[in-house]
Design a protein that fits this description.
The structure is a homodimer.
Chain A lengths: L7 H11 L15 E5 L2 E4 L4 E4 L12 H13 L9 H11 L8 E5 L2 H16 L3 E5 L8 H4 L14 E3 L16 H18 L4 E7 L14 H11 L3 E5 L26 E4 L10 E5 L1 H9 L12 H16 L2 H22 L3 E7 L2 E6 L10 H13 L2 E2 L1 E3 L5 E4 L7 H20 L11 H4 L6
Helix pairs in contact in A: 2-9, 3-9, 4-8, 6-7, 10-12
Pfam family, one (chains A, B): Aminotran_3
Keywords (chains A, B): Pyridoxal phosphate
Organism (chains A, B): Sinocyclocheilus grahami
């Protein structure tokens, strides 16, 4: 598989014929064919190198040899299922437990973040015996039937029994950075939703939220938000589900889980994890409390996931945890992420188009705006910047309700030099816009089509 | 990971503490710890060999070196997602297309059979704009919220808008082997359900059925059943979904897909596939028609599956197809499956407890009954047989509404010698029951607990 089998045009033609067109390509007008990758670098069919700023799934770097070795060794021994006893699953659950607050001590292994969120929904509903789910606006929790209902980003027309709360975005939202206590104010919006639901005789099973909303625009929750939301949700008999599918495993650097940024006095009742867990391999997980797990067991129905928790997936998961520690990738996220954020903040001073820079560790967003007073999202300019960066062999994409947020979620081995390269390129591209004619700025007609889709 | 990390008792203790108890173990009163496996053989922590009669997921044999090599080679090159162009996904889709009728030519790759069935549900509902689903009694289509509703085996209390049709079981069902045309008779039950639904103003999106119902008791559809069901479903504006998750990839020997046993004049509109596809690796797929895929694309919503269709999963899928061909595993299924069925039919003549032997290729069921006239299922005796076979180092399990069907779904490299070994053991165990005191037969109290759970 090392060599190109088909010429790129033929691959594209076959892809259009054989694969459902709902499955979209990056840069759909001129997609990239990637043959191999290593660390934070991608190589196309001509050997051209691209810097990868968005592959958060390839968490410790593309094709890390330790992961490949662990997978191959276990594949040669046993690739069975969880109905046989095996050490790997308990070793892995034990290692994950050590990263979490004590009460999150029971694990279910599945194959994807979507499967994890679906199971979290089943656990929450079984435990609380309530049905309603509160989610944040612009949230995305997966592609399954049950999750589309709780993903306003995909389907803003939610079914009657679900509510969505305002995104606690202090740049664009109803309460901004000048508010005295935006954490309390946004948490109160959730409380109001619960009260409204109660008035209609409905009951809340759960509040679902990414610990840092990603497709929502790389949002950092204001201080105290999660704790106060959890209080209201618990009061209503519901549970707090922290979706760490994009944000877990040390991406934020200072903590292993992004929900831990909210302080030690906040603990979710269910945590879902996925994308970075296997560095590309399909593995995901739900962690919960003994009480919730017991309620799920009490329904008497077996939960069997054919592939979930198999010895190979767990060996890969264990190897990934080892690499994070051995290579101090959390420390790297703090250092490189911090440096990148500083560089982008300098661009904000220099370029009026850069409205906001926010983030933590290697989870950073840079918002492109028409002007800083109105904060009007500059969707076309952001798309143009993405296209120009691709010409510079930098793969990056946009997020947020208006696709105006340049998002950074690179493999965790991203270096200081990479950060400087991308920042310098952005500086030059933005700088070029002022010295050239205005018409040279965004090719508006190609705007959205040319941008990278969300949810990587 | 080659060596035992914990003593078996400790593994079990940790498992009970760390893993949700809804995830059950085989032989829960005395689970087996498997350290390694090769071909059709499992090895426990003491190096004891077990013959594996049920691991249909490890389709070409446990830990086949060709699969491991293909996986490791691709893992070293690229483990990215389907938003980048890659040859493997189109190569693989092309190979799968060659096994299917021409009209099934568009593919969606996912991570599990459950994800495949959930997507099939979305495709069917989007295309038909209808909601109702007709499923067979005792069916199991997956563990997701959306699929529990269509899996009477898990939840017989279905929601109002769904119907289940009688299982076309000519041994226990309403029409039996002495009926002149059971295919037509059972198909008429589906037609009646559709008419009832229409009277209530409801509309049928789809009929979902495994091409050979597995947890339903290793059922072989009577001739003409599928074609006639498809006619009624199409007339109602619905689509026929063939769930080949357990039965595809040559298990039936004579054909690549079990639905092909129903003749060339039958073709489903959607086929879901999963368990054997990756020989243990999490990969699954939905194949459908251009019309259905186009309707799904037309809703304008992207379908992105983070891991689905990645280069490693497709490399593994391709390697598996090569092994099936190179090792003539379909031919082996015909020869060994045929021989095993003959041996079991001889046991039927000899032992009154063997009520029925049915199956095709390496998909075989042997039904244990109290007596042949009443056909009363002998659940406890079947469980006892499973326990006794475990003592003989043969791993097997039961299926069917009453857990009275001994099921054979071994890796496809199962040999003539393996078939003779298991048949001889069953012969001896059953024979022993007549010469010993009746009380020595099944330990009724341990009956169900000791049996192996379903849905492997």
């Amino acid at each position: 598989m090392a060599l190109e089998v088909f010429h790129k045009d033929e691959t594209l033609q076959m892809r259009r014929k054989l694969i459902g067109q709902s499955c979209r390509l990056f840069f759909s007008h001129d997609p990239v064919k990637i043959m191999r990758a290593r660390g934070q670098y991608l190589y196309d069919e001509n050997g051209m190198q691209y810097l990868d700023c968005i592959s958060n799934v390839q968490h410790v770097g593309h094709c890390h040899p330790s992961i490949t070795q662990a997978a191959a060794a276990q594949m040669d021994l046993l690739y069975s299922n969880t109905r046989f006893l095996h050490d790997n699953i308990v070793l892995y659950a034990n290692r994950l437990a050590a990263t979490l607050p004590k009460k999150l001590c029971v694990f279910y292994f599945v194959n994807s973040g979507s499967e994890a969120n679906d199971l979290a929904l089943r656990l929450a509903r079984q435990y609380t015996r309530h049905q309603d789910v509160i989610v944040l606006d612009y949230a995305y929790h997966g592609h399954l039937t049950s999750l589309i209902d709780i993903s306003p980003y995909k389907f803003r027309k939610l079914e009657g029994q679900k509510e969505w709360a305002p995104l606690p975005d202090t740049y664009h939202g109803i309460y901004r950075e000048d508010h005295l206590d935006p954490g309390q104010a946004y948490a109160d919006t959730v409380k109001s939703l619960i009260e409204e639901a109660h008035k209609k005789g409905r009951k809340i099973s759960s509040f679902f939220a990414e610990s840092l909303p990603s497709v929502g625009g790389q949002i950092i929750f204001p201080t105290g938000y999660c704790k106060r939301v959890a209080e209201s949700v618990h009061e209503a008999g519901g549970v707090y589900v922290a979706d760490e599918i994009q944000t877990g495993f040390g991406r934020v650097g200072s903590h292993f889980w992004a929900f831990q940024l909210q302080g030690e006095d906040f603990c979710p009742d269910i945590v879902t994890m996925g994308k970075p867990m296997g560095n590309g391999h399909p593995i995901a997980c739900v962690a919960t409390t003994e009480e919730i797990a017991d309620a799920f067991t009490a329904n008497g129905v077996e939960y069997f996931n054919t592939f979930g928790g198999n010895p190979v997936s767990c060996a890969i998961g264990l190897a990934l945890l080892d690499v994070i520690e051995k290579e101090d990738l959390r420390g790297n996220a703090v250092r490189v992420g911090g440096h990148l954020k500083q560089l982008l903040l300098q661009l904000q001073i220099k370029h009026p188009l850069v409205g906001d820079v926010r983030g933590v560790g290697l989870f950073i967003g840079m918002e492109i705006v028409k002007d800083r007073v109105s904060r009007k999202p500059a969707t076309e300019e952001a798309a143009h910047l993405v296209r120009r960066l691709k010409e510079e062999r930098i793969v990056i994409s946009t997020d947020g309700p208006w696709d105006s947020v340049i998002k950074f979620k690179p493999p965790m081995c991203f270096s200081i030099e990479d950060a400087e390269r991308v920042s310098t390129c952005i500086d030059q591209i933005l700088g070029g816009w002022y010295t050239s004619s205005p018409s040279s700025i965004p090719a508006a007609s190609a705007g959205l089509q040319g941008s990278i889709s969300r949810n990587t």
